[in-house]
Design a protein that fits this description.
The chain has 170 residues and is of the alpha+beta class. The protein is 42% helix and 28% strand. A four-stranded mixed β-sheet has the order 1-2-3-4. It is flat and about 65 Å long.
């Protein structure tokens, strides 16, 4: 009975259409494509944080080979804003929201064609306390966390785009 159940489960999983993103490991088209993405400098402190997070995620595919010829360029524009949410009776702010949005394009260098044009965004709530130092530290930490979150979203979308492109044989 267990053997039949295991066989049925294997058949059901193979029919679901899921395939591993990095099938083939470091030699797969997706991994090689990710390793060939160049991320130019992004303006501002948030841009620096996003670029470092992207380099960490996309650089994993390079496996120590720092001299990979870029085939793609990732152009990123950030919008970083801080808005007051909670205002007390004495007109002081008690809560803020930090919003980080990225508009990005993956450009194939050989042809100049845009393979991906998308946005990613995230936001975080911040408590404003009596200590100005603590509030500034919370705002900076929120920016760091948002940069990592956006970089994760962008790296995932880039990998999906490159996988779909490889599956289409382009």
């Amino acid at each position: 009975m267990r053997t039949i159940s295991a066989l049925f489960a294997c058949l059901a999983l193979s029919a679901c259409g899921l395939s591993p993103m990095y099938a083939g490991g470091g030699s797969s088209a997706v991994a090689q494509g990710i390793a060939a993405v160049d991320v130019p400098a992004i303006q501002g402190r948030g841009g620096w944080l996003v670029k470092n997070a992207l380099d960490a995620r996309l650089g994993v595919a390079r496996n120590g080979a720092s001299q990979v010829t870029p085939q793609y360029r990732l152009d990123v524009r950030l919008d970083d804003s801080l808005e007051a949410l909670g205002v007390l009776n004495d007109d002081t702010i008690s809560r803020e929201r930090r919003i980080l949005r990225a508009r990005y394009q993956l450009v194939e260098l050989a042809t100049g064609s845009v393979l991906l044009d998308a946005t990613a965004g995230s936001d975080a709530g911040i408590d404003v306390v009596s200590s100005e130092y603590a509030t500034i530290a919370a705002e900076q930490k929120a920016l760091e966390n948002l940069a990592v979150d956006i970089a994760d979203r962008m790296a995932t979308q880039i990998a999906v785009t490159l996988r779909n492109r490889a599956a289409a044989g382009q």
